[in-house]
Structures are given as structure tokens and as C-alpha cells.
């Protein structure tokens, strides 16, 4: 299977009841059976939180009938672009898409699925920028996003019990 052979379907807020369990199951598979961290337990709350946004966007990759990965996010509230605090001189254009989650089934990694999902999610977005967070303990993931046009602009710990994340920003459309 190559990324070109995937079927990528797009979904919105109104589709959440149909895709919610698929997203949760894929996230659990991507995290692995041995990983029993707090985020894995809290993940359904995040799905519901992001999915409740009327402009929620999700892309799910299918290999045959099997879901093998997803990416989702939603536009940031204009004027509340939290990433701005990471830059001395923020760009003039600031409409931002918050890229919240990306997960690929372990058996489908390193086959271009993450790239295909990210591009499908961000393609045609009306926003000027995309922002995401990457755990600073995962430099390979950060490098992957950099290869797609994101750049690290700072670090942030959004919750007291969360890891420290690299704040990554990209201009849309991606190169």
C-alpha cells in the first residue's frame, strides 16, 4: 500500500457521531497497547471538544475498508491566536487553523500516510496559517512537520500536567 492508493475522506462537525469511535480507536492503536498515559485516557474528551466546533475538519485515510489514520483540527478564534506570544514580530496575516491531532496506525507508518492526511486536511483552507504542537521529546516528529513547511517558533506547556510542546507554525497553503 502506498499513500497514492489510499482513499482519504473528509468530515466535519456534523459527522462526529459517525467518526468519533474510529478516531478514538485509531488513536489507541497509534499510541500502542503498552502506553497507558493520561492523554490516552483523556483523548475522547479532546475529540468531543474539537468536534464540537462548528468548523471542525477531519481527514481519515482508508486502505480498503479499514481506517488507517486521521488528522483533525479547527480554525482558531480570530484575535485569540495564542501562538503569537511565541514571536517577537507576528505575521500580518493571522487567520489560523489549529491542527490538533494526527495519528497513523503503526502498520501503516513510513508509507506517506501522515503526509497525505496532513495535506488533505490543510488543502484549500481559507486560513493564512496552520499551527500545531509537538512534544519536544519527539524530535523526529518535529522534523517531519518541518519537512512539510512548519517551523518551530517557541515552546508551550498548555496545561500543568501536559508535556512541553514545540509550537510550530506554517503558512498556507503548504509548499
From TrEMBL:
GO MF, any single term: acyltransferase activity
Assigned keywords, A-Z: Acyltransferase, Transferase
Enzyme Commission designation: 2.3.1.-
Domain N-acetyltransferase, residue spans: 6-171
Family annotation (SUPFAM superfamilies): Acyl-CoA N-acyltransferases (Nat)
InterPro entries: Acyl_CoA_acyltransferase, GNAT_dom
Organism superkingdom: Bacteria
Major enzyme class: transferase
This protein's name: GNAT family N-acetyltransferase
Organism in which the protein naturally occurs: Streptomyces microflavus
Amino acid at each position: 500500500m502506498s499513500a497514492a492508493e489510499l482513499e482519504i475522506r473528509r468530515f466535519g462537525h456534523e459527522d462526529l457521531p459517525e467518526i468519533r469511535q474510529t478516531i478514538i480507536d485509531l488513536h489507541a492503536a497509534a499510541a500502542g497497547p503498552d502506553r497507558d498515559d493520561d492523554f490516552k485516557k483523556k483523548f475522547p474528551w479532546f475529540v468531543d471538544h474539537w468536534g464540537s466546533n462548528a468548523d471542525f475538519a477531519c481527514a481519515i485515510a482508508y486502505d480498503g475498508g479499514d481506517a488507517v489514520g486521521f488528522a483533525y483540527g479547527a480554525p482558531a478564534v480570530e484575535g485569540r491566536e495564542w501562538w503569537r506570544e511565541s514571536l517577537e514580530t507576528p505575521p500580518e496575516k493571522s487567520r489560523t487553523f489549529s491542527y490538533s491531532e494526527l495519528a497513523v496506525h503503526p502498520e501503516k507508518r513510513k508509507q506517506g500516510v501522515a503526509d497525505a492526511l496532513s495535506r488533505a486536511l490543510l488543502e484549500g483552507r481559507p486560513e493564512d496559517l496552520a499551527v500545531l504542537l509537538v512534544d519536544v521529546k519527539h524530535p523526529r516528529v518535529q522534523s517531519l512537520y518541518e519537512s512539510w513547511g512548519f517551523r518551530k517558533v517557541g515552546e508551550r506547556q498548555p496545561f500543568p500536567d501536559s508535556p512541553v510542546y514545540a509550537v510550530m507554525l506554517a503558512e498556507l497553503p503548504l509548499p
